[in-house]
Each structure stands twice: as structure tokens, then as C-alpha cells.
Amino acid sequence: MQTNSEKHQATRRVTLLSVAVNCILGVAKIIVGWLVGSAALVADGVHSFSDLVTDGFVLAASHYGHQGPDHDHHYGHGRIETLATLFLGSVLIFVAGAIVWSSTERLISAADIPPPGYWAILLTVLALLAKEWLFHLTRRVAQRIGSKMLEANAWHHRSDVFSTGVVLIALLGSQFGATWIDTLAAVIVGLLVGKVGWDLLWESGRELVDTALPVSQQEAMRDVALGVPGVEGIHDLRTRQSAGRTMLDLHVVVSPRISVSEGHEIGNEVSRRLRHSFPALTDLTFHVDPEDDAGEGDPSQLPGLPLRPEVEAALAERWAGLPEWHWLLDLELHYLEGAVTVVACIDEDSPLESQITARRLAEAAADLDWFSHVEIRRLAPVPQ
Question: Distance between CA atoms of 200 and 205, rounded to whole angstroms?
């Protein structure tokens, strides 16, 4: 299995190659398109430069993914990428609008467009082959390192193959007299550039408003968590995304009578299995519940039950005069169903009968509104 550093280097190499190819193609298309008067070729050159946006985000995501949170950014720096995506998406839509506007005017005015020439057609064919090669190369690397982000960029290269194909048809039509096809193709490519910008705006906007993962993925996460031994239920599962990373909060219901450390380890196992099943999951917070309190609101905002010091003081006041008091070794408290269950641990050598002792202690504490009932557990005294 490759390390994060090796995956980062593989992503960086193939993306930098994509940057170089897109730069060369973009410059060549714009220059040749301007020289031969082909609006479609110029628009496709702008489209090639728009691909640099996606390449830049892949590089940024890979770079920031290896930088841990700092004192000012406890959840990392993913939102910086999101804000940059919003800005660049807006720029692309503006550029697309300019291309469509000028091309539409040109189409309406029936401007005279000279044949582009075979050099322009040859350049477009080379561009089409180069983008198809980039698609296969990038997809192969993405599958090798298991990067969904890189695979998405590979399919973006494939979409460029189709747009370049539209331009090639336009150039061939112009070469043989149908010059209006060139202008129409420029409009189509402009719309494709606008779609790239809109997609960037839409996805980054969804991230900024903390849009959850699809319901199917949330249910898959729930199923993984429920498969952990000791998990009795899952609720309040919440997800959000940032720069290709997924964050998850959930409540894990366990048996109310296990130890704190066992409940915590069950939660740790839930975290381990979820991270293994969903590699994009980088931030997970779990809360261990002794009972399913889903739909009851935030317990911290409700009237609270007394903690141990107050409980012990109240019970001491009521039990100190009873003969059972002298046999008590410890108290276990269980906060369940809105009340406190008290487990009275007594000396195993005591002559007390458990049922009678539980009844007498419960009667003495019956006036406490937070009190539930008493259970008896016999323990060997701890050697002094």
C-alpha cells in the first residue's frame, strides 16, 4: 500500500503534466484561432485554460491535504479552496458570457469568416489526441492510488475531448464553405466553459452551507457502525464536506452498564471501521450514549441531574442513621431514563439480606425527585 506522501507525489506529477499540456494547447489554439479568424478555436483555447482551474484545485487539495490543522484553523484549510473555487467559477462564467455574446453577434451579422486552413485543423486533431491520452493516463494513476478526486479530473479531460470534437467539426465545415458552423461552435464551447464555472460555483456553494452526503452514503455509514459488536444503536448521524474531505458526527448507543473505557473503545472501533470503509472521511467525532435519546433534544440544554458530590451528600443525610450505612463500600451511579439508579456496593461478609437492604435504602431516599431505585452488589473489601 502506498503512503500518503507517495500518493501526493503521484497526483502532483500527473497533474503538473496536465497543466503543461493545457498551457501549450491553450496558447496554440488562441494564437492560431486569432490568425485564421476562427472564433471556435479561440473559444476552445479559452476552454483549455479553464482546465487549469481544475488542475489547480487538484494540486491545492493534494497540498493542503498534507497540512494539519493549526492554532487558527482547527478543522484545516479546506474552506480556503472553497472560496477560491467560488471566485474562479465566477470568472469562468463571465468569460463564457463574453464568448457567447461576441459569437452570437458575429452569427447574427453574418460576418465573413475565411477558411481556417489545414494547420488549424491539424492542431485541433493533435489537441483531441492529447486530451484523450491525458484521460487514460490520469485515470490509470487515479485507480492505482485510489483517488476519486484525480479520477474526477480524468473524466474532465474526457469532456474536453468532446468539446474539441465540436470545434474540429466546425473547422472542417468552415474549410469547405459552411462558415456559420464555426461561430455556432464558438457559442457551444462558450456554454461548455460556462457549465464548468457553474459546476464549480454549485459544488463550492454546497460545501459552504454544509450540505450533507447523499442519503445512500449516510445509510452505508450507519450500517458499518451498527456492525460493530457492542453497538446497540446509532442516531444523530451528521455529515458535511470540505475540499474533497468528509466530516462526520454521530452518537453511538451502548449498554448502560458497561464501563466508561469499554464504551469508549467501542466508539474507537466504530471510528476505525468507518475510516477504513470511507477513505475521504478525515474528521470523525463520536458521542457514546447509554440509551437511545434520539429526538429528545440536546440534553445539555435540559434541566440536569445532580452529579456525584450532590448525590452522595443527599444519600449520606438519609442513610447515615441506618445500620446498612456501615457496610457500604462504594456507590455506582447510573443516569438512565431521566433519573439516577444507585448501586450500593456492600461488604460481602455483611449479614444484610440484599432485598431487604435495597428496600430500606430506597424508602429512605424516596423523597428525592431525581432518585430511581437501589440495587445491591456485594464486594470484597479492598485491603488497607
Answer: 8
